[in-house]
Amino acid sequence: MKTIQSDNYPIFFENSIAELVNFIKNGNYSRFFILTDENTGAHCLPAIKAELGDDDNYDLIEIPAGEENKDIDYCIGIWRTLIDFAADRKSLVVNLGGGVISDMGGFAASTYKRGIDFVHVPTTLLSQVDASVGGKTGIDINSIKNIIGTFTQPKAVFINYNFLKTLPARQILSGTAEMLKHGLIVDAAYWERLKASDLSLPDEELIYWSVEIKNKVVVEDPTEKGIRKALNFGHTVGHAVETNSLINDSDPLTHGEAIAIGMICEAYLSYKKTGLKKEELDEIVAVIGGLYPKYPLATANFVTLCEIMLKDKKNQNGKINCTLLESIGKCTLDHICTDAELCESLAFYAS
Ligand code: NAD
Ligand code: ZN
């Protein structure tokens, strides 16, 4: 698996921990900061420390695990630590974790002293195939996802397949949702490969393929003026379901579980509005429905979900905007969906 060259930064797959340490050593950084959560601190940091050997020119910043902590308070905590340890403009932030760490660490670094360098070492499947590539950083406010953020590219990404060995099965499946999305939006052959694979632990080649797809899309359109919107398939409904679950459920949905629900709803909208065939809808429902437990969506919640969708930053002029499918492997951008259509799609999922 070759290194992928993204917009001015490399994505390493082979010997990636050694590549990380080389990068740090050759980067002429005054000091570096490794941001982890409690799980990646326990499971992933030891391998990095071992490779660093006696290099102790760094400080650790650890936050509690979970999407509910991707917020301004923990972000202030990161800024304060950078200040306390006198991070200067030649400091580097190493984001060692899943999408929560890469989004928040990237955001904190991209704003500290008007921007210092950061790299991602993604440790979840979801962050390897999606969150670490493309330069979106951000935090949530009032559980509104990624409402504050920047487009800032990392200086490099280091993907290490071995980190997935300690990842719980539910988190693996969370990442699988984004891989399925990559197939559905632009690559029917990839969708076919995924269907024929064991998705309880996708192999390295499938991960590489997914990163290639994501990277190709974001390099073409880094700031989401056009084709990058393809990646939003499943995310209009999915983000609303995820936000609602974060607020109300004692054991909230993972990002991928919410996106899986969103993809079923938006595939239904595609069948109604943009030419997706009935057999294709049935296939999508069978594949996705077979992987994720059914989530109880109550009809009484549909209006609330539409209200959340209205606040989505993908919208314009107060209208809810979706990326839909023309067929499996071909998406179509910028479709306004009415509340009635969205409610119908939620009812389709719930039925
Ligand atoms: P996450 O970072 O919360 O990680 C999921 C869980 O796995 C956490 O409990 C974490 O501690 C644990 N974990 C991480 N690595 C582990 C390992 N190797 N072994 C054991 N446990 C481990 O969540 P995520 O699913 O990685 O990312 C979701 C976030 O990513 C969301 O906030 C979403 O908005 C964001 N995201 C961003 C982009 C982007 O383009 N920036 C794209 C997709 C998703
Ligand atoms: Zn996503």
Quick structural overview:
With 351 residues, the chain is α/β, with parallel strands linked by helices.
CATH topology call of the largest domain: Dehydroquinate synthase-like, alpha domain
Name of the CATH superfamily of the largest domain: Dehydroquinate synthase-like - alpha domain
Treating each run of at least 4 consecutive H or I residues as one helix, how many helices? Answer: 14
What ligands can be seen in this structure? Answer: nicotinamide-adenine-dinucleotide, zinc ion
Query: Care to count the β-strands?
Result: 11
Which strand order does the major sheet show?
4-3-5-6
Radius of gyration: 20 Å
For the largest beta-sheet, the strand count, sense and barrel status come to:
4 strands, parallel
CATH class of the largest domain: Mainly Alpha
Order of secondary-structure elements:
EEHEHHEHEHEHEEEHHHHHHHEEH
Protein name: 3-dehydroquinate synthase
Keywords: Lyase
Enzyme class: lyase
GO biological process, one term: aromatic amino acid family biosynthetic process
Topology:
Blueprint: E1 4-5, E2 10-12, H1 16-26, E3 31-37, H2 38-43, H3 45-52, E4 58-63, H4 72-84, E5 91-97, H5 99-111, E6 117-122, H6 125-131, E7 136-141, E8 144-151, E9 157-158, H7 169-186, H8 188-195, H9 204-220, H10 235-248, H11 255-273, H12 278-291, H13 302-310, E10 320-327, E11 330-337, H14 339-350
Helix pairs in contact: 4-5, 6-7, 6-9, 7-8, 7-9, 7-11, 10-11, 10-13, 11-12, 11-14
Bound molecules: nicotinamide-adenine-dinucleotide and zinc ion.
Residues 130, 178, 235, 255, 259 line the site of zinc ion.
